[in-house]
Amino acid sequence: MPMCLQASESKREQFQRYLEKAGVLDSLTSVLVALYEETEKPNNALDFLKQHLGVAGQESADTEALQQDLRDMRQRCELLAEENKGLKNRLQRYEPTQEDGAAD
After folding, report:
1. 61 Rama class: left (phi>0) / alpha (psi -120 to 50) / beta
2. Where along the sequence do coiled-coil regions lie (predicted)?
């Protein structure tokens, strides 16, 4: 066997071991099996792969985190608005507006 062919085989085997260790081969295999077992094949196989490999899942996780942050901020905004209204009412009792003061 020529030397360059052996080097090429060695690199290929190293890369394959790397993919196996990282779990890439198992993930790809399971997603491809899921696609194969779909009774109605999706129109876009690449989108199916992305969705099932977790690319879309990562976006969904990010989206969920942002949506939770938004809910938290809206709740905080409501609480601050209520607190602000209460403080304005208290201030109104101690410092009448200029219109009220002009009547004196």
Report:
1. alpha
2. 63-90
Instruction: Give per-residue pLDDT as tens, 32-80.
Output: 999 999 999 999 999 898 888 876 555 667 788 888 999 999 999 999 9
Cβ proximity of 53 and 31 under 8 Å: yes
What single-letter amino acid sits at 96? P
CA distance 45 to 30: 14
Query: For the chain, percent helix, then strand, then coil, each to nearest 5?
Result: 85, 0, 15
Place of tokens 């066997």: 1
Residues whose CB is less than 8 angstroms from the CB of residue 16 and which lie 6 or more positions away in sequence, other chains included: 25
Question: In angstroms, rounded to a whole number, what is the distance separating the alpha carbons of residues 24 and 29?
Answer: 8
